[in-house]
Amino acid sequence: MVDVIITGESGKLHAVYHKSEIEAAPLAVILSGSPRQKYHMNDRVSYAMFRAFMDIGFSVVRFNYRGVNDSEGSIGTTADNMLDIATVIDWIQNKNEDSDRIWLAGHQLGAWYVLQAMMRRPEISGFALVSPDVTVSDFGFLSPRPNRGLLLQGMNEGEEAANFGAHLTQILKKQAQIDLETIRIKNADANYSMPADLRQMYNDLKAYVGRENADDALL
């Protein structure tokens, strides 16, 4: 993996990129949580998501939104961050023009960004939502967009998170025709603070993506 600089709307975006040795490998973009809550591309959950895709042969990129660490500009709004996400998606696709599959994975607020980006990018092959921020409840952006994805939550996130996950599953199926598989990891919190919990999240994500990506390759 190498550090790269991607030119964004408000200046340079700092990113880390891994190029797969597999010809025409699928792509993945990792979206960290809210920078206002100190999440960034090198936090432990973002790195674990990155490694899950990297270790099954994807070309994958993670990055800091504008105003975060070495990315230029000021911390932005959701609209600003969505522009940065679009820029990074375009960048990795341009670097890998022979690839026809791309996945998104996001943690906390980044999970919401995954869903918004998917509504705007019909080429998204699959996605993963890792412990979405349960305080965000605006589903107005959803429209029919048949797809499938994974929801990962820790069982120690509490009853509110479990109820929210069930609600999100129904909303996605009803409004967007999206099938969402849910895995709840025993003893884990929303940040997968214990090493064993983080390892389990990594393993579950890697297994799901590997299986679904293999199925896509047969279509």
Question: The biggest beta sheet, please?
Answer: 8 strands, mixed
Number of strands: 8
Rg estimate, integer Å: 16 Å
Strand order of the largest sheet: 1-2-4-3-5-6-7-8
Proportion in helices: 25-40%
User: What average pLDDT do the residues reach?
Assistant: 93
Tally of helical segments: 5
- List low-pLDDT spans: none
Series of H and E elements: EEEHEHEHEEHEH
Please report the distance between the alpha carbons of the first and last residues.
30 Å
Name the assembly state. Answer: single chain
Secondary structural class: alpha/beta
Shape: globular
The proportion of strand residues reads: 25-35%
What is the gist of this entry?
It contains 5 helices and 8 strands. With 219 residues, it is an alpha/beta fold.
What would you note in describing this structure?
Strand 1 and strand 2 form a beta hairpin. This protein has about 220 residues and is of the alpha/beta class. The protein is globular, with a radius of gyration of 16 Å. The protein has helices at about 45-55, 80-95, 110-120, 160-175, 195-215, and strands at about 1-10, 10-20, 25-30, 60-65, 100-110, 125-130, 145-155, 180-185. It has an 8-stranded mixed sheet with strand order 1-2-4-3-5-6-7-8, sandwiched between helices.
